[in-house]
């Protein structure tokens, strides 16, 4: 059916009637959504997974991938974006592996439409989920491209090991309890055309202000980080693209437009080699957290790195584009 958010795109609901609901959520209400750029034109495809408090709206990313010879698909995960329903806990999940249900179904659709060469792409929290999924699905992907993947907790390296047992215990008792959080609005100011940014998107679908962070969700994230720290075995080439620096100052500065103000890129870089045997790290000067939302010249550099990586490690796509 036509997508009401992006003209010219199509969407396919993926019902999840048997997946668990929490608190006062309506039973059987869960659904994910597969978004498709156009009718299949190639046997190669990208499957994109968004980040926290987000949904797919970056159509220029899809256009760039089409230029490399890939059809483009994106998943709005359960409780996000096009998939969020009334009375659901926005963004909540108790275990990141629960997402494998809709991701497996999305991949089945992509393959059923004639694609036997699939590149998995994930941003931020979606990059963490994508990494865990790719590890569990050997042979499924020709390459993995990660845009600022949340591979480790920010700040001191001892914070996660100290925090994880506490949150795991709290999850068993009160998983949907909301945690204190501070949303400065700085990132929205950087990217949204409703403020001082470039990009038009649906504030309701993107979760703006951000979704509540709940105990069970945070515990699931830390479990994912621990799995990465222990080492994954993704069996295809992986690109980890990140900004050259992070900036966590607490008062507004124009320099926020030239850095990742959400995640610690040095921590990501230190964890990236744990993903598999062939991992390429690209650090992009002046890039924001979502690299493809950076200013024009910076995102052109990002797309150039994507192209160079795929040409080197998935060269069939380059031949298709030519």
UniProtKB/TrEMBL annotation:
- Domain Serine aminopeptidase S33: start-end pairs: 43-241
Q: Where are the transmembrane segments?
A: none
List, alphabetically, the InterPro entries matched: AB_hydrolase_fold, Hydrolase_4, MAG_DAG_Lipase
Q: Name one Pfam family in it.
A: Hydrolase_4
Name used for this protein in its record? Serine aminopeptidase S33 domain-containing protein
């Amino acid at each position: 059916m036509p997508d009401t958010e992006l003209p010219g795109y199509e969407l396919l609901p993926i019902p999840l009637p048997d997946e668990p609901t929490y608190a006062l959520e309506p039973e059987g209400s869960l659904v994910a959504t597969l978004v498709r750029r156009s009718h299949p034109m190639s046997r190669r495809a990208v499957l994109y997974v968004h980040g926290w408090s987000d949904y797919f709206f970056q159509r220029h990313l899809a256009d760039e991938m089409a230029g490399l010879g890939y059809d483009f698909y994106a998943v709005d995960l359960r409780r996000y974006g096009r998939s969020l329903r009334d009375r659901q806990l926005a963004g909540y999940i108790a275990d990141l592996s629960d997402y494998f249900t809709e991701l497996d179904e999305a991949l089945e659709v992509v393959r059923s439409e004639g694609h036997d060469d699939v590149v998995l792409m994930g941003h931020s929290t979606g990059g963490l989920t994508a990494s865990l999924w790719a590890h569990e699905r050997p042979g499924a992907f020709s390459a993995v491209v990660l845009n600022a993947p949340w591979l480790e907790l920010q700040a001191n390296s001892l914070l996660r090991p100290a925090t994880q047992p506490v949150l795991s215990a709290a999850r068993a008792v009160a998983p949907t309890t909301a945690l204190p959080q501070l949303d400065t609005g700085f990132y929205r100011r950087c990217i949204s055309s409703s403020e001082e940014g470039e990009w038009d998107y649906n504030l309701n679908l993107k979760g703006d202000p951000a979704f509540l962070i709940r105990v069970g969700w945070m515990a699931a994230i830390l479990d994912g980080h621990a799995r990465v720290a222990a080492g994954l075995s993704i069996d295809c080439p992986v690109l980890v693209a990140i900004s050259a620096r992070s900036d966590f100052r607490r008062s507004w500065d124009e320099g926020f437009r030239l850095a990742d103000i959400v995640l610690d890129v040095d921590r990501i870089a230190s964890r990236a080699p744990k993903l598999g045997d062939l991992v390429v790290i690209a650090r992009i000067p002046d890039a924001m957290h979502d690299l493809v939302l950076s200013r024009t010249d910076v995102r052109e550099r990002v797309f150039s790195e994507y192209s160079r990586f795929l040409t080197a490690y998935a060269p069939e796509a380059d031949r298709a584009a030519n």
